């Protein structure tokens, strides 16, 4: 009697045995089609145990062993087992989420031949001569051996990407595959183009969640079969089995999009570190504003710190950053006279300006001054945002929409107003104030698809004559990794809001955003200027920004975190529950607390259950419970036992809960 022990995509922490007599050769790592309930599922064979604890009559025969790909390799299992235990997720869920959707279908579509794209026409501009700083970084990584984690801290425009390309070249020359993780591929079409241009004949796989199913399967297979030598992908690409992996690069390693926000809430950056240690590989985490977690590791020597302090193009200096104190100034639609003057000067010089406001829509809320009504979402504890262009009120959390009412829905007052300011409102004001300027708004409303975004980028880039763009208005979409050669002015409006936000990570994020967006100015020969409007010009965040001094600001924040007992000096997990009634969510969390005797876990601290800040979403009430420990192993041990207990709590049928390890948002 031959038996396969199979992982299935279920939130159950167990495996399933099936009979496989007569199905041909079986091997761990092959996919298998099995009956499950009244339907069928695709699973992964984890082992061939020889016998089962189940009585023979309880064992069902499997239907088919799928051998259209080689078996998934042992290091793939190790990575998934680690993720499963670290994030308290069922192994089956982890293993199956790692496969492209097409390989998980019980009735497989006809598979086509797989060949990685070796595209990239056009002339390759000879790679530039490296600067001395770049040479040093390259040598450090290329001369490392075994597991070697590096943090590459380089100001914007210092040539980090160029370094990645050279590291990839070296890996290819050693006959190895290189994995480059990027935060959001759609935001960086330029990077993809640069890789294809530099390596026109090297098969490259691109992996992200927005690929069509067939393309995703094709790219994944090319990577897994070793045909693709360069793999560029978003967080999900960290799970791709790569037989000859020799290098991992994590670009913009501080970016929050490395964190998966539903299902298994993993950090692709942290898994990349584990994967490098497992495979005894060099790994480079790169950023102009590293996460404090990585920066702290670089300070203790756990990661080797490498720095690029100069811009790579010798003429390109870092932009001068000016603060404009707006406390005693008359602003027009939030824009100060100095910023207006600066924009005007750029218009005269035919240079480009970028006004950064990290809030899309026309205004964040519509309100009635007579009765105090505000445009709340019916489903969420949030305001509906005014979108004047299409006359809609729209909830940015759940997508709920209404037509903008003509009068106040509660008192009938016709005098209702949008309060506050978003990118559309700023755009409208700029259009009025600078009637001859060509103005382009860039946010998730104007760049919904990859195509739209690429078209906008193209326009920003090389528009000339009547097509040229004079003023860009946009959200952080504009902050990421683009070279805009004619951009010489960046203005930041409304940044202060994040200084005093309830989320203690907000200043870290604000600093990174402003540094990134400031880094867009003056990338080519033209010098850049950055104007930040603030009512808190003496705030240390702005002082560090003016000095382009990430290290000193990071040191300040780390001191604060140590004193407050926040990560990276403590380790956290969050238990969240949602239900139609808040009381049910809170009761579940209370029951979770009652599961444990504090004296059995002296090193772990459980906070009180509280409603989440966005306490209602999609008509569900949400509450959370923070767990904290100064010791990661203690926290891990605690979570493993706790999770088993959580599964036994009786709760109303519409209650959902999940556990998140290393939460980023509160
Ligand atoms: P980062 O990724 O740090 O923002 P990039 O690698 O994109 O920096 O480099 C910024 C600009 O400098 C790009 O236009 C790039 O082509 C150029 N560059 C990079 N390295 C060099 C070099 N050694 N010599 C000349 N130009 C360079
Ligand atoms: Zn009213
Ligand atoms: Zn909503």
Give your account of this protein's structure.
This protein is of the alpha/beta class and 666 residues long. The chain folds into four domains: 3-104, PriA, 3(prime) DNA-binding domain (GIY-YIG endonuclease), CATH 3.40.1440.60; 132-308, 3-Layer(aba) Sandwich (Rossmann fold); 320-361 and 422-562, P-loop containing nucleotide triphosphate hydrolases (Rossmann fold), CATH 3.40.50; 571-661, 2-Layer Sandwich (Alpha-Beta Plaits), CATH 3.30.70.360. The chain is built from 16 helices and 29 strands. A seven-stranded parallel sheet has the order 9-10-8-11-12-7-13, sandwiched between helices. The chain has a six-stranded mixed sheet with strand order 5-2-1-4-3-6. Helix 11 links the parallel strand 21 (439-442) and strand 22. Helix 1 (74-86) packs across helix 2, helix 1 packs across helix 7 (268-279) and helix 3 (132-142) packs parallel to helix 4 (160-173). The longest helix has 15 residues, at 550-564. The site of one zinc ion has 8 residues, from loops.
